[in-house]
Amino acid sequence: MLLWILSRLRLALNGGGFGAYPSANDKDGKEHAMVGKIALGGAVALALTVGTAWAADIVVEQQNKAFTPTSAAAQVGDTLTFTNGDLYTHNMFSGTLGHEFNLGGQSPGEKKSITLTKAGTFEVECQIHPRMHLTVTVK
Ligand SMILES: [Cu+2]
C-alpha cells in the first residue's frame, strides 16, 4: 500500500503526473508543480491515517454540569477528550487507584485530553461539581 503510494508520488514529482497533464516545460508548469504538492500532501495524510488507525479519540462533553456520555468503553492507546460546553470551569480528576489523574481547571470552550495507557475501570469526577460522574472501562 505505502509502496504503491510512493511509486505514484515519484511519478507525479518526476513530471509523469497521472497522464492527464502537460509536461513541466509547458506554460502550465506552475500548475503541474502544484499537482505534485497536492499528491505529496495526500500521501502524507494517508500514511498518517494508516499509522494511527487503531487508536480512537473518544469525546466526552460537559454540559449542564453533566458528562455525556456517562460511561465510555475504550482500548489502551485511545484518547479521551473532554469538551466544556458550560459557562463554568470544570476540573476533572480520577481518584481510582492506579488510574489517578487531575487535569486542573478547564475553562468554558476549552478541550483537554488524556491518553489511556492502562487497562481497567476508573471513575472520572469534577472537583468543582461533585455530582458529575463518568465511568471509563479500558480493555
Ligand atoms: Cu465541573
From TrEMBL:
UniProt xrefs under PANTHER family: BLL1555 PROTEIN (PTHR36507)
Cofactor annotation comment: Binds 1 copper ion per subunit.
Protein name according to UniProt: EfeO-type cupredoxin-like domain-containing protein
Residues of the signal peptide: none
Main localisation: periplasm
Domain (EfeO-type cupredoxin-like) ranges: 52-138
UniProt KW keywords: Copper, Electron transport, Metal-binding, Periplasm, Transport
Pfam families: Cupredoxin_1 (PF13473)
Recorded GO MF terms: copper ion binding; electron transfer activity
GO cellular component, one term: periplasmic space
Cofactor(s) in the UniProt record: Cu cation
Keyword hit for Transport: yes
Positions with a binding annotation for Cu cation: H90, C126, H129
Location within or outside the cell: Periplasm
Coiled coil residues, start to end: none
